[in-house]
Amino acid sequence: MRPRPSLVLALCLILTQTVPAAAQTVGVTAAVNQAARSIRPNAAIRTIALGDNVIHNERIETDTVGLLQILLADGTTFTVGPNSALAIDRFVYDPDAGTAQVAATLTKGVFRFIGGKTSKTPGGVSLGTPVGTIGIRGAVVDISLGGQAGGGRPTHVDMIFGNDVTLTGPNGQTNRIYEPGYSIIIGTNPDGSQTQTVQKTPPGFGSAIQQSLAGAPGTSGGSPNRPSDGIVVASGVAGENSDRTPAINNPPIPLARPEPDRLEVVDGELIQDAQLDVGREQVVEDGDDDGGDDGGDDSATIPLRVLTAGSTYVTNGGETVETPGAYGLVGGSAEEDRRVDLTVPGSSPTGNGATNRGPLILPVYGSTAFTPNPILPADGASLGGVPLIGIGYSGVDGFAAYTLAIAGDTTQPFYALAGTPLADPSVLRDGDVRTYAFTPDIIQQLPVPFFSASAIGTEFSGASISDFYLLERPGNDPSSVFLQSWLLISGEDQNQRSAVGVNVGNILTAGDGALNVDYGRRGSFRNDPLGFSSHMSGTISSLALAKGGNEIFGRNGENLVLTGDSEANDYFRDADVFGGPSPIYSTFHVLNLEEEVPRAQFSADRGATRELGQIRGFSAGLIESDDPDGGYIQELGTSGIDPNSFFIDFQADRDTLGGELQIASRDGTLATRIAFGSGTNQSGSGGRSAYIDDDLFAAANNGDTSRSFFVRDQTAYRQIDGVSARTYLLSGDANPQPELLPEGRLCDCQFLEWGWWGTQIRASADPSRPNSEEAGTLRTAVHLGTWVGGDIATEAELSALAGTTATYAGSAVGNVSQVFSGGIADYVASGSMSMSYDFGGRSGELSIDDFDGRDFSGTLGGTGTGDALFSGVLFERNGGDATGPTHGAFVNDGANVAAGVIGNFDLQSQSGNSWQASGVFGGARSVDR
């Protein structure tokens, strides 16, 4: 049974500017290790405690083990490391306009800045430092002043994620970073003047700062209970920070120390806990709107949809789950999914209703912007007299989503929804791209959606996590596409954990004419490098309100809620290659519209285009399979020399894509072929896919089961009809991993596409009865396989380059299987690639270096007519004995012939096959002669 985490809630305090400027509160200490002190103007030095207010001009200092996190009202956070000093000079926040400005002075030490509304406001962030003024726009930034992060490193400013960072030095010199994975490094000339250099973030910078900000051993952020990264996410801060959902700041935000509960009237408004929670308003909906006291009943009624967990839950497959609340399984019956009318007296900040579990009391909100509202016992929320604890999210047009736990026990979730359904669906048909941020699930407490906290034994600070993107379809087409993805590769070799989530769906029109969101949950993970991969399935759906209608809320579709398909009692399940018992669970996420821009602008801001037609190329992966005779077998495989073995057709007019790929082991005994996306190979049987631009696209399995099968010992086993293959394909640039590849990209080449894929095919053990499970079933799977593709040049085009040579540079990425003392470990590895080629002689040399710590090189030869292909054999240098074939092709960048190269490789050691690897590579032309 999965662990039942206790509920530890973070405070996200909503602060205003009604305090006099001389002592204006600007933030709150959200995580403290007790080695931080405050020096306030005209006040004695004090030790900072969790939950303390921070005021203007207050100098914050930490000692050698101190660690502090300051949370501002707009969602901006400063994490202050050891031996550091900071003062917030100015902070202005207009929640109605969604704008904010902050000016701070960083005197010494190590810091991480995560911008909320400040970094989305032009000129909103100004950080004064001894080396100049730092401006930040929509970014997560690490700052080390005076080499405080250790290791003899210089002062530096690193962009972790985001759009733009500038440093203006004392002499007026300005340098700018606009790509994650780059740094501004500050040095000193012999004459004492300052130097500023922009370069890729050197190895060790990130880990040194992370170590500084992770806290000393035994510390816990000031909490009496050791918190987790998930608690940071549950705080709601992630919904504002840098327009990114993931909580990448390791110092957690635990429960703040309690303040006295009271009600006061401030500026004519009823305020609860006025000292710390100024800004919570008493608002009632659908009541009298004259605002006066006419002596009558001015109460209002808010229809709520309330979902709770029963004692058991029966899935659509007839399975009975005990204690379903521990797995997020709510609803499923009229008793656990019901309508409740919340009555709100005109002078009350709370409403009350009647349920089959007794009286319900909930706070109500009036919000002009999406706001997380912590609900603690002092707030009085209860069900049947038992406190409800958690977060109430409020938004425009009366939207409210309560994600609570009965008595603080997350095995007893309580969800409630209120709001106004979208009245005019045409607002979703303008051809724009919408960006929705999402909240974490209260039970899983993870920064990724639709995933189980118990599935993989690692934390998620290194995960690359996208928002939810909605690509509107113009005209009357309601089938706009949704896309969200995430990728985690943590650790190396036998200690690596990896996972990927690919969530692709559509807005559909139900039988009653209402719009709803339908998702296919796909992805895979390896929670033990010495074990098997597991693959994800399940339907994700939007929730309707109590009064029905569209399942997208607000006049501009500002909010929606996604979870398992509660209407059909559907659920999420993760199965390994043997398909044995696996946990059944669901998660609950609130989405809020962050941005809506024209599609062309969205892509231009990302440096992407929508010019893709068909691409061909190469693929690789590790095939895992259960053996018909019992046991488990695995083989590394590639698509070989034929670029037609991998193709993607991009259908820009429909915002979709479809394709197929196949890989086979070197000896041909094991092979896998899959179809993905929409309408491949003249097949009318489509699948889910989303093509937003050439950096952001994904697909799930295609419905034509005849196109997805595996081959074992020359016998083909086809995917069973009516059972979806757990297939996904994802662009690599959608979720960059800078720790794996430079800047998170395969190469500096927009014309070249690459990414990840995976599948789990389930077939009848009797090929003569491909749709019968009576004879048993077999499964074959691939986790985080790789692919690369482009516009492949022809030999005729290459002939124009005769008499010249070229040099290419890029990276290689793929899968490794290595024998360790505990067994065979399977993991992802990467390295650099370089290649030189003589177009006249059709010959060259390819090197793949530092791939899993090994170096390879070999000579290449052209293959003749048709496509401009090359092949060769790679040999390990420096005393190693691994060797194997490589195949590739030249790719064009428009009229620029052979602007890049792509290919695959298949390597294995000759001494007992103790090390094997297969993968893909890509590179851009850097030198012509």
UniProtKB/TrEMBL annotation:
Biased composition, class Acidic residues, residue ranges: 284-297
Region described as Disordered: 188-259, 280-300
Name of this chain's protein: FecR protein domain-containing protein
FecR protein domain boundaries: 59-143
Coiled coil segments of this chain: none
Top-level taxon of the source organism: Bacteria
Organism for this UniProt entry: Aureimonas glaciei
InterPro entries: FecR
Transmembrane parts of this sequence: none
Keywords attached to this entry: Signal
Signal peptide: 1-21
Residue ranges with Polar residues bias: 190-200
